[in-house]
C-alpha cells in the first residue's frame, strides 16, 4: 500500500486507455452506449456516474480512508446532499461557529424542510452531551447527527473529533465533520470516529481559486447508499473538467499546505506583537497549542488565521489598503486573501449570534498563500500604518500617544 504523498499524486490508477497518458482522461460524454437492451453498462448517464468523477471520488475516499467518496458542484451542494439523508422532524446539533453559508442553508432552507437545529459549543463536551441527549420526557428526542467544523471558520477553534464522535455515537447520532480547513493531510476524521467528512474542495483541495467543488467521504456502505441517492436524485454533481481540476490540485496539496503553514505562523507571530492588533487566532502559535493540536489528532493548524484590531481602528482601513493580499472571500488557495467576516463571509449570521460566539465587527480573517512571507508581512505593515494615520486623523483632538501607551490601543 502506498503512502499519503504518493496517494496524492497518483490516486488509484485506472489504466483504462492505451495511449500511455499519465493523467486520467476527462470523459465529457453524458451518455454511454448499451451493448444490448438488457446489458446494463457500468456507466449509463453522467449524473449517475462518470469515470472522471469516479477517479476523484476514489482519490478522496482513499485519502480520507473511507469506504466511498462523492463529488458535488460546490461545498454547499455537498452539505445539502448530506443533510437531505435526514427526514422532517429530525434534530441536528450544530457547532455554534460554522461557515455563514452553511448556517444559512440550515436555518433558511432545512428548517422549512422540517429539520430542527440546536447550536452548541462543540468544544464543551458536557454541553454537547446535553444537547445531543435532548429531553425525551418533554418531547425533545435525541439528535440524529452532530455537525461541526474541524477548525472553525473564522475563529479557528479546534474541535476534538474523537470526543465529539464518541458523544454522538452514545446517542446513536452520526458525527458529520466539515474538514475544509484541515484536509486529510492534517487530519483524517473518519479515523477518529466520524461517520461523514465534507469538504468545500473549492479551498485547499483544488487550491487555485479556479473551481467550485464539494466532496463527501463516508465510513459505511449504508450512509454511502443514502448519499449516492441524494447525489443522483438531487443532481448537484461536479462536471468532468472540474473533477480533473480538483484532482490536479490535490496532487500538490502537501507542498502547498507546508508552505502556507510556514507563512501563516510567520504572519501570526508578526501580528501578535503589532500594537494595532488586540488578539490573534491561530492554533499553530506555540503556546496556542501544538500539543493540544496533536492531542486532537491534528498534524498542523492550516493556513487560515484571524485577528482583531484594537478599538477605534477601522479594520476596513487595513483591508482596503492591502496590495499583495487580495480583498476577497474564500481561502486555502495559492494566493493570500483577506476579508472582514462580519460583512463578507459571515454576514448571514444575525449580529447578536455573531457577537455571542466572538465574531466581532473588528475581526479580520486572512487566508495565507504561498508567496514570500516578507512580502505578506510588509503588505500588512504598510496597511496598518495607513489605518493608524486614519485613526490619528479621526482623533485629531485626542492625545493619541498617551492613549496608545495607556493601553487603549494596546
Ligand atoms: N464549509 C466551509 C468551512 C467553508 O468555508 C465554505 C465556503 O467558504 C463552505 C463549506 C461552502 O463551500 P462552497 O463555497 O464550495 O459551496
Key phrases:
410 residues; single chain; 7-stranded mixed sheet; alpha/beta; binds pyridoxal-5'-phosphate; transferase activity; 15 helices
Kindly describe this structure:
The chain has 410 residues and is α/β, with parallel strands linked by helices. It is built from 15 helices and 12 strands. It has helices at residues 4-10, 51-64, 75-83, 100-110, 125-133, 161-170, 183-186, 221-234, 240-251, 253-272, 290-295, 315-319, 351-357, 373-394, 400-405; strands spanning 68-72, 91-95, 116-120, 145-149, 174-178, 196-200, 214-218, 277-281, 304-309, 326-327, 337-339, 363-367. Strand 4 (145-149), helix 6 (161-170) and strand 5 (174-178) form a beta-alpha-beta unit. Helix 2 packs parallel to helix 9 and helix 3 packs across helix 4 (100-110). The protein is globular, with a radius of gyration of 23 Å. The chain starts with a helix and ends in a 5-residue tail after the last helix. The structure holds pyridoxal-5'-phosphate. Pyridoxal-5'-phosphate binds at residues 74-76, 99, 101-102, 149, 153, 178, 180, 200, 202, 212, 214.
